[in-house]
């Protein structure tokens, strides 16, 4: 695989760095030897990434693809699933909840997504100004149906490596992570990233989900794994300080929750919560605040720290 975008992370694991306007690109991982390549995640939709895959697939050194797997339903990971599955005809794998989410998103037109997002912003009490535009997933139609739904705890051989499937949660509903204790590897998709870690958002389509609770549960589950695992993430370089990074991410969430509870002097909306928790957010972060604050609020409600005023819209939260 001579392509300059390909980095070799191990003898039988390569990372194809695909373009993306944010996060310095998105990783597609290629597992296995030349006669048994399994592609994990596919990059953004559009001609630029499609052309990269065409050139990779047409390179005789690349060899034969035996499977395509999408870790989760976000656009930067599923953008070229259609092209790869149609072109190679190989089995496609996802988790069932993530497939349900992508199938729903693909079925909605941009107008419908816009209407759902508007309701969600209203629920959070956010002003109309500065609202981000939802992503139009309908361009991914027809989205291939997975041949295999991977389940939590199952064992699967991909690219000649035996993996245990761990279904995470929080960043999205039930993303696939692949653990090889033998190789000391955790392929984590976006469940573990450098810096402050992945965003943990509520979804506009599922505004009551306890995404942050699900994410904490995932982090707790990592505590039981060996300290010396190397994390293969969906963005950026391999993470070698696994446990300190888990702790950094967890304490970042805890600190934001504390800032919120400490600053809460009376009833408030998610928009007011955002001002307490996120000082001077960038424009990009600002557009995400309705989703991040709703996830925080839902977590604190589930923890019985705060309650929702019944029937309120925008939702009003009060100390329990
Ligand atoms: Zn991503």
Summarize the structure.
With about 325 residues, the chain is an alpha/beta fold.
C-alpha end-to-end distance: 58 Å
**Rg (CA only):** 20 Å
Strand count:
14
| Domain module count | 1
Could you characterize the architecture of this molecule?
It is a single chain. The chain is an alpha/beta fold and about 325 residues long. It has a single domain (about 5-255), classed as 4-Layer Sandwich (Metallo-beta-lactamase, Chain A). The protein is about 35% helix and about 20% strand. It is built from nine helices and 14 strands. It has helices at about 45-60, 75-80, 80-90, 95-105, 110-125, 210-220, 240-265, 270-275, 285-300, and strands at about 5-10, 15-20, 25-30, 35-40, 65-70, 90-95, 150, 155-160, 160-165, 175-180, 185-190, 230-235, 305-310, 315-320. The strands form three sheets. A seven-stranded mixed sheet has the order 1-2-3-4-5-6-7. Strands 8-9-10-11-12 form a five-stranded mixed sheet, with no helix packed on it. A hairpin with a 5-residue loop joins strand 3 (about 25-30) and strand 4. Helix 7 (about 240-265) packs across helix 8 and helix 8 crosses helix 9 (about 285-300). The longest helix has 22 residues, at about 240-265. The chain is globular, with a radius of gyration of 20 Å. The N and C termini lie far apart (about 60 Å). The chain binds zinc ion. Zinc ion binds near residues 26 and 74. Zinc ion binds near residues 26, 74 and 235.
């Amino acid at each position: 695989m001579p392509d300059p975008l390909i980095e070799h992370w191990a003898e039988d694991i390569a990372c194809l760095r695909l373009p993306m306007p944010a996060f310095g690109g998105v990783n597609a991982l290629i597992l296995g030897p030349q006669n048994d390549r399994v592609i994990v995640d596919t990059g953004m939709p559009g001609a630029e990434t499609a052309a990269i895959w065409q050139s990779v697939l047409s390179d005789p050194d690349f060899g034969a693809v035996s499977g395509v797997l999408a870790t989760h339903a976000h656009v930067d990971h599923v953008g070229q699933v259609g092209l790869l599955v149609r072109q190679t005809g190989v089995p496609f794998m996802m988790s069932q909840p993530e497939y349900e989410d992508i199938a729903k998103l693909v079925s909605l037109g941009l107008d419908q997504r816009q209407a759902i997002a508007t309701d969600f912003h209203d629920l959070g009490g956010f002003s109309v100004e500065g609202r981000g535009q939802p992503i139009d997933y309908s361009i991914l139609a027809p989205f291939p149906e997975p041949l295999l739904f991977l389940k939590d705890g199952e064992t699967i051989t991909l690219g000649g490596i035996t993996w245990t499937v761990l279904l995470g949660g929080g960043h999205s509903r039930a993303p696939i992570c692949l653990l090889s204790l033998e190789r000391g590897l955790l392929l984590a998709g976006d469940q573990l990233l450098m810096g402050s870690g992945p965003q943990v958002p509520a979804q506009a389509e599922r505004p009551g989900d306890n995404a942050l609770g699900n994410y904490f549960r995932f982090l707790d589950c990592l505590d039981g794994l060996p300290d010396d695992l190397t994390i293969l993430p969906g963005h950026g370089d391999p993470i070698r300080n696994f446990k300190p990074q888990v702790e950094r991410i967890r304490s970042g969430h805890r600190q934001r929750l504390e800032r919120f509870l400490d600053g809460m002097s009376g009833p408030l909306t998610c928009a007011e919560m955002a001002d307490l928790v996120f000082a001077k957010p960038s424009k990009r972060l600002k557009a995400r605040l309705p989703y991040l604050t709703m996830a925080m609020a839902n977590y604190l409600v589930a923890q019985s720290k705060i309650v929702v005023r019944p029937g309120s819209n925008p939702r009003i939260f009060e100390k329990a």
